[in-house]
Amino acid sequence: MKKLFTLTILLLSAIFWGEEKLSAQIKNGQISGFVVDQQQKPLDYATITLLKAKDSTLIKGALTDDKGGYKISNIPAGSYLVAASVINYKKAFSKPFTISESNAVFTIEKLVMMVAAQQLKGVSIVAQKPLIEHQIDKTVLNVANSVLAAGNSALEILQRAPGVTLDKDDNISLKGKQGVTVMIDGKLTYLSSAQLATLLRSTDGNSIQSIELITNPSAKYDAAGNSGIINIKMKKNRASGTNGSLILAGGYGAYPRTSESLTLNHKEGKFNFFGSYNHGDRQQRNDLNIDRVVGSGNNTTFFNQKTFMPQTNYYNNYRFGTDYDITKKHTIGFVVNGYFNGEQDNNVANTLIGVRQGVTDSLQKTYSDLHQTFRNFAFNLNDRLQLDTSGQELAIDLDYSKFNNNNIAQYNTDFFLSDGNTQRTPLLLRNQTPSVISIKTGKA
To answer: Per residue in 219-235, is it b (16+ CB within 10 Å) or e — as a string?
Structure first.
């Protein structure tokens, strides 16, 4: 038996920004712009690639919307250029530009696409799925081997999907409708919006095959997706032999961050074994300053609050399983997947209180220690019988999922007079909210 092992290591250079006190905006650089044709008409679904100016290394990708606009966020400091491409048009490039501490938000000049000349001397036909497919009941975003997969998480890819929007809390909407059901390989996730965002943020784009956007779900999905369904289909390599990939990424801003992803697949005869593991650590900080005035006249109190909020996140996602092909159209298999994610916040808030602005009569200092852990284990048995080439199939799924979440919070507040002496007894609050949920389902 011939075995093929392909190992790809992608090591992103660590990015240093000089001084340690660089603004938090520097690691959240953002660009935006528009793509039009020669008649100044917007070109939708044009592929946008962010390239390093030095060697044209691909950093991130995006798609234009129906107005020809695009936006790419979370860009580290450096010099870049933007390329736009769309079928039947010549590729267009922007001028080089630099993202820096003083220029973190950049607007790219309008890119004008020129119609490509047609050459009929020779014809080459390459079988390749388009990036976006509009089917009768859904829109499919073919992520695999596309520019979107490079350097983006599942959450960032969703932000670029047609009709999908995310608010500041990462709640997902589909064509303006909230309460969207998100599935992974046709399975409900049973997660809160915050937990779902964490899971998608920790899922590497290179492990995604496609994303299905279903705005009007059929009876097949029961009542689970009245506001729409997003089904994320993960890669499952069917090539004979053994192959895999290893991706390492790292960066440094105010704090370091790392991520690692390993994917392996082995197919021998009628058996296909597959597995993947993702790990990452991310640190960030926010500074919050609030000035409040309570009351009026002689009964006015001034509050000046400064809060330092460092946060540490880590994630571990795994997925493995086996398929057995009874015939070319009939497959049975099982899949095990889960995650162990966590978040820690250690906040310090200093509040100056006085009856006159600029004069401190007392001080409150609050230390908050927050720990959150999210664990999930899921097991699936499945049986698939393909009925025709249009995708119709008979399917049986047996699923078991267990969620174990735990939130621990402690708040310590000390009260002082302006001379530093204790004003009153310190206040201590503790809270713990564990939850365990088990779900068993069967579907045919």
So the answer is: eebeeebebbbbbbbbb
Element at 160 (helix H, strand E): helix 154-160
β-pair partners for 382: 333, 397
List the one residue out of 329, 408, 325 whose CA is nearest residue 372.
408
- The tokens describing 155, both together, are 């959450």
d(CA 408, CA 283): 19
What mean pLDDT is predicted for residues 221-225?
57
AA letter at 320: F
Tell me which amino acid residue 111 is.
Answer: L
Query: Which range in 125-129, 283-287, 399-403 is most confidently predicted, on average pLDDT?
Result: 399-403
Range of the domain at 398: 270-444
Q: Are residues 148 and 290 in the same domain?
A: no
Confidence of residue 9 (pLDDT cuts 50, 70, 90): very low
The dihedral built from the CA positions of residue 137, 142, 143 and 148, taken in this order, carries a sign that is negative
3-state secondary structure 353-372: EECECCECCEEEEEEEEEEE
Residue 380 and residue 308 in one domain: yes
- How buried is residue 145: exposed, middle or buried, by Cβ count under 10 Å (0-12/13-18/19+)? middle
**CA-closest candidate to residue 82, choices 46, 131, 28:** 46
Token pair recorded at residue 444: 């045919």
Q: For residue 147, how many other CB atoms are within 10 A of its CB?
A: 21
